[in-house]
Write a structure and sequence with these properties.
Blueprint lengths: L8 E3 L7 H12 L7 E3 L5 H4 L5 E5 L9 H7 L6 E6 L4 H9 L5 E2 L9 E5 L1 H4 L11 E6 L5 H16 L1
Parallel strand pairs: 1-2, 5-6
Antiparallel strand pairs: 3-4, 4-7, 6-7
Helix pairs in contact: 4-6
C-alpha cells in the first residue's frame, strides 16, 4: 500500500522462504516504491510474519510445517503465547540489542504470570541431540502476557528492525 504521502506500508510479510519476500519486492517495485517505510503485522502466525528477512524460523507447534504440528493438531484446539524466533543472521550482540530494545517485555522466564517476557537462548546449551529441523541462528523466546497485542507486535517489530536491519 502507498500512502498519500508516498510512504510504503506492508501488511504482513508472508511465509518464510523465497516466494513471498520475492513477491513483496516485485509489488513494491510495481508500485514505484524504493523502500517500505512501515510494516504492520496482523498476528503472529508464520504465514503472516515468517517472510521477514530478519526471522529465519518461528518455533511454535501450532504453526503448520513446524516440528510437532501434527501432534499439536491431533491433541489440541488452541495454542498458548509461548514461541521462539530463530534470527536470520546476527550474533549474540544483535540478539542482546533486540532484547534491550523491547519496551513492553521484561527479561525472564515465565511461571504463568500476566506480564510479557523474553529470554535469549543458546541452542547448543539446551539441546543434547541433533535437531535438523532447527535453522541456524540465534534464538529469542517470547512469552506473551496480557498487554495489548498491537503494542506487543509493534514492540517486537521495532526491536528486530533496530537490532538487525
Amino acid at each position: 500500500m502507498v500512502t498519500p504521502a508516498g510512504e510504503g506500508v506492508l501488511i504482513d510479510t508472508g511465509n518464510p522462504g523465497g516466494r513471498d519476500p520475492g513477491r513483496i519486492i516485485e509489488a513494491a517495485k510495481a508500485a514505484g516504491l524504493a523502500k517500505i517505510d512501515y510494516v504492520l503485522l496482523t498476528h503472529f502466525h508464520g504465514d503472516h510474519f515468517g517472510g521477514g528477512a530478519e526471522v529465519a524460523q518461528v518455533l511454535h507447534p501450532a504453526l503448520p510445517g513446524n516440528s510437532g504440528y501434527d501432534i499439536w493438531a491431533r491433541d489440541f484446539t488452541g495454542a498458548g503465547g509461548l514461541f521462539s524466533f530463530v534470527l536470520n543472521g546476527g550474533d549474540d550482540a544483535a540478539r542482546a540489542a533486540l532484547i534491550d530494545g523491547l519496551d513492553h517485555f521484561g527479561i525472564g522466564y515465565s511461571w504463568g504470570g500476566p506480564m510479557s517476557l523474553v529470554v535469549p537462548y543458546q541452542k547448543q546449551n539446551i539441546r543434547t541431540l541433533p535437531a535438523p529441523h532447527l535453522k541456524l541462528g540465534t534464538v529469542v523466546r517470547f512469552c506473551i502476557g496480557f498487554e495489548d497485542v498491537a503494542d506487543l507486535q509493534a514492540d517486537i517489530e521495532q526491536a528486530i528492525h533496530a537490532a538487525l536491519v
